[in-house]
Amino acid sequence: MPRSDEAAAWYTMVYRAVQEVPHGKVTSYGHIAMLLGYREQPRQVGMCLKYLPSAADQPDARYNSDTVPWQRVINSKGVISNRGGNGAQRQESALALEGVQVERSSLGERIVDFDLYGWFPDQLPSEARGDEESS
Prior knowledge:
Elements: H1 5-19, E1 27-28, H2 29-35, H3 42-50, E2 73-74, H4 87-97, E3 102-104, E4 110-112, H5 114-117, H6 125-129
Parallel strand pairs: 1-2
Antiparallel strand pairs: 3-4
Helix pairs in contact: 2-3
GO molecular function, one term: catalytic activity
InterPro entries: ATL_DNA_repair, MethylDNA_cys_MeTrfase_DNA-bd, MethylDNA_cys_MeTrfase_DNAb, WH-like_DNA-bd_sf
Keywords: DNA damage
């Protein structure tokens, strides 16, 4: 959870950006960071998603696992990052519901083909449209 106004603003920026990733597409932590103007902070994007509240625990939260498509963000190699427990399996299952095929690498990693499912625009669609920042 954010502990400062600056951290809260960062989390909000990340969650809003991830909300723009289209259904059935994936992007990387680094690409979200780049779209936000912080190319050097892909791990911080990952941390925001790691601490995204569960909709089951916080159903009324503005940003939670039902309102932010966390499953659409993977690492720069197209691999679903291990996150302990059954997190990678949950992410694979959520992507499968969107029609995204997850394969296994020779090392057993869950991998998504960026050529088929990648989403890597030069800017966020909301910026391209000139949307006003909403509160």
